[in-house]
Sequence to fold (720 residues):
Amino acid sequence: MILVRELWLLMHKILLLSIVSASILLGGERIEIIASQVDANGSIVHSTSHPTLVYQDQILSAETMTYDRNSSVVEAFGHVNAFKAGQYHAISDYSRLNLNEDTRYSKPYYALDTATGVWMSTDEATGCQNDIDLANGMVSGCNSADPLWTIHFSSADYNTENMWVNIYNALLYIDDVPIMYLPYFGYPTDKTRRSGLLMPSFGLSSAEGFYYQQPVYWAPSNWFDADFRPQIRTSRGSGIYTDMRFVDSASSKGSIRLGYFKEQADYAKEYDLAHDQHYGFAVDYRNNDFLKNWFGVDLEGESGLYVNGKWMNDVDYLNLQQSDQTQNVTSNQVFSRINGYYSSEDNYAGAYFKHYQYLNPEIDNAQTLQTLPTLQYHRYLETFFGDHLLASGDAQASNFYRPDGKRAVQTDINIPVTLQTSLFDEYLDLSYTANAATRAIRFYGNTLTNTPDKESDYPSGYYAQLDHTLSLGATLVRPYETITHVIAPNISYTKAGTRLYSGYYEDRHGQCSSANYPCEFYTLNEPKDGLSLGLNNFLFEDGQQWLVDRLTQTFSYDDTGSYYGELQNELEWKITKAISYYNQTSYNHDRDRVTKEQNTLRYNDSIINGSVSNYYTDQLGKIPQYASYWTADLAYQYNRYTKVFGQVAYDYHEALLKRSEIGFLYTQRCLDFGLKFVQNRRPILTNTTGSNSVDDSYIFITVILKPLGGSEFNYKLTKN
Fold:
């Protein structure tokens, strides 16, 4: 009896070994069926004890499993779980796999993408190699037990190699409410860059009609991509904007933006627009080692190049780039620049190009001065005699150019030398600085068109100065039990020393208090003896700084202006862990009034985040400036998921509400849903006054289906 039992166990082991060894013959790949009990009948292997099959990068488990070694077909029944290369986990009641032909069938089918958390549930799924066809199901990124959003579809297909899902006849549900229908919807299941359609933007406006923008993303290589954003505004016009981005080396990258929009004739006439076409471009480029990348020059130190260039025919080129025009920062002036530099341990050299474009047609850009370029050499600070003597040097040459009008080349050299020491056992710091500076200017070109200026008003000129500054300061620290007080008073006196004028500077000296054309190039400050007093206070508690106060007062000793300079104070005060206050104030003694003030009170904790700010200025000069703005913002975290927010900006001087906003955002792991109402005033360019503005009112609805993406719909009401 014992012998029979041992023979039966031996035969059972031989049977299991024969299954494994037979599976090796399938394309040289090993197949394992792991179970507590496996039966074999000819070519059929069968197990009813919760078997697990392992083949290549796939793992399949079920209550019951059958494997036909002749056809290489696996059938699994009851609680079927399939794992594929760590990419996804699929669940079904029944699955059939043909290992030889690499085909699969499951019914019903539930799959979870382990990387993104997106799941899909369908009636059935048919797969062949890398393609899976799905029928009648839903997809979501939320908890499958009670999803906040689902997308129902009639059919879908998934390519496991390209990691891309296509869904057809898609209907979005928020909770159980149908929200939106799309005939087609596609999304990736990884973060690989790929070409395709991006999330569209929708809008509705009483003035501009229905707005639709459909971005198209193009990624032909790993160093270049672009997105094209065609848009239509049914009652206004249509256009397209595009951004092209590139990486041309490990230390450089750039982008180019182009745009064009064509107005409908009726809209341009109704709003009296200066142009019925809006177009422009922008270039942004940064290279952190351009000397080596472009010229093969491998020097000690570092080099850099920065390009930021813009041009447009009017301000609406900016306003039309997106539906939410409240996010645009518009201006009557467009500033472009190119900066290049090389810096070593001791030396710095740079070249800077600056270009200004005015969008107001009343200003002739041909008469606008441009800096093309400024060349600079700087010698970094050097110390001698045990850090008691300090010296540096700076030289700049600027070419001021314009097509119509006088041009000039201006050269500036500045050499400060400082002698410093400590007194009274390092309680006081004493320093003396001699600052030598010179400037030379040479003019070329013609005088401005239609101006009476004469050639004699622009002779070449030279200027030199030598000033002396004596400074005395201290840093005193007094610790208490929990608070440390640091006080740093300082006083400095500057003596305006020798001044030499010749040529243009001698002719214009004392005559350029008003703006006239020959004074465009006269930027010298009149010599002044000055006294400066400063007092800085710092308070620390437990190593954390909670109060800073900086007070300065200057005095001028000359007959050309005010004796008293403005009294200026800057305060940063962290009142509590949640409350902070900032103040900046300037007081004019002669006018006996505050000429500039900024106040910001902010509260920030885990529930409430808000601030109130005021900015005020009342300064006299060649161009008087007066402004008064109030801004306030508030965000309230109602609960873990919901935040309510709002902001307002009011121009007190113009009695004008510049912007107001109120809304809420509901956010969870798988969904962001937001609603906000915005009122905003933005500038436009018209024929009559050169510039005007439009009041916009928006209702924004934002839906983000995490991690698939989302879109924004807005309704806009526009009026003059």
